Structure formats: structure tokens, C-alpha cells
Amino acid sequence: MIIDSHCHVQETEFENLDQVKACKLAVMGTSPRDWADVANLTEEYPSKIIPCFGVHPWFSESSKDEDPCIGPLSFTSEEKEFWWIGLLEKYLKRFPQAIVGEIGIDKSAVDLQTKKPYDFEIQQKVLHSQFQLAARMHRSVSVHCVQAFGALVDLFKEVKHDILLSSDDEKKRGLMFPPKIMLHSFSGSSETAKALKAQVSFSSKEMKIVNSNLIGEPSKPPSPEYSGTNGPNFTPPSLFYSLSELVNMRSEKKLEKLLSSISIDSILIESDCGSVHLVDEKLHNISSKCASILNMDTQTFLDHISDNNKSFFCN
Length: 315
Hints:
This protein is α/β, with parallel strands linked by helices. It is built from 10 helices and 8 strands. This is Cut9-interacting protein scn1.
């Protein structure tokens, strides 16, 4: 089962999605303005689309103020800082298979109109809000990170620190990890990959600390809809590195080093494109390149990817 783990085909018109050979496409929303498009596409092709809803870092600033094009919002959310959190929560409830994405941080991009970099502090707040909503609702996330891996490692460290200090009292719990984290078109170094992995890994000693903190007076089990990874039955999050032709085939030497430093069980592949007609070609290109570097035939590599797809999207 080959899944395009990250694409934006809602951005272009097409006649028939069934022409795509990939079994499923994870279609990433980027702001409240395109979430309805993702939802409509999912309802039209329910067996083909994995819906994803999130605010991309490029749209973090524009998402601060309520969008009159979306219409009045009559629902509330635990997160009050951003008006669209309630809308995001509503879409996630509507689509139980949905993941939260595309979210993240980006220090390289600039606003095309003002020519100024996007406000990084706002990006971090927007990422934080979505990261925590995903954790509470037990949803996986697709994270965009460009030239900001230090900040992402710091976020992971902060979450891990809070988990190690957490208690069985839900009101006293701190930050949480979503159950599965995909690093979309991962552009970091092999050292960065290891640093991120270290923050989502828990030693046996750390697991004992977490579990002992969670043992206390019997409390009401959390709703399955809101059960983060530091709930009563703590499970460390799974971390996946999604690779694309666009980003990861720029430097074969860097890709070789990355593939030598991460487990093949943690790799996903993506097209990261908006054109339906390019999806299969881009997935083939990155698959062939990775297989060649790993000294295996393409089908064997795709068999691994199929298993990884099941782990990330289906379990």
C-alpha cells in the first residue's frame, strides 16, 4: 500500500483522481480557507483521500484575525488564542481519520507582498496550539520545518520535560506529544534527525518515572477523543521522516548520510505537489533514489514503505 504522505492536490482542478496509482493521498490543508476544499475532496473520494487540516507557517500571521470569508463561528475551544482552533477541532471530529497538517515553523520564507520574513514568534504559537490539539485528540501531525530545527528540538525537549513531570491529574498535566509525528520533506542533517529522535525516545528509567507519576488516586479515564501520549497508558510517540524528490534529491551526499542514520522503518515518501498528474512520477523518483542508495531494488524499498504507511496512517 503506497501512500503519498504529503501533497496539495486540492489546489488544482482535475477530472478523475482514480488515475493516480498511489493507493491513497494525504492531502494537506494550509489554512482555514482551504479546509472545506480538503473536506469536499475527501467526501468525493473517501477511499482515496486522507484528509489533513492545519495552518501552515506561511499563513500563521494572516490567521490571527477572524476571516470574514469563513463565516461566523458559533463553537468554542479550550484554546482561545486563535479564532480558528474551534473550526479545526470541528473538522477533526467530522473526519476521525484526519491528521493535523500542514503545521510547522519556517525561518527561510518571506511574505511575497511585504518582502519581510514571517513573524517567527507567531509561527511558534500557532504550531504549539495545533501540536497540543493533536495530542489531546490523539491525532498524528505533519510538520513543516525549514531552517528552524533548533526551535523544533527545543519544543520536543520542553514536551518531554513536562511528560517526565506529569501526574495522573489531568488538570496538572503539561505539554503532550501527538501519537505520531511526520517530519515532512525532512531537510535536516543526520545529526538533527538523531537529536529529534532522542527527544521522543524514553529510556526504561524514564518510562518508570512517567508511569510512577501517573499512578495515583483512581481518576476518570479520559475520552478517547482527547487522550494524549502522556495519558494513563503512556506510549512514546513514533517519529517518521518523510522524503521527497523536491527537497531530498538536491544533494545525494546529504541523502546518503541521512539514510544511514535513520531506521528504514521510519521512512515515508511524498510528492509534496499540487498536481495530480505528477504524484506517481515524484513518488517513483524518490523511491528509486532511496532504493539505490540503500542497495536494494525499488520494490523491496516500497514494501518497507507500505509497512510504514500502515504504521503511521492506519494503526
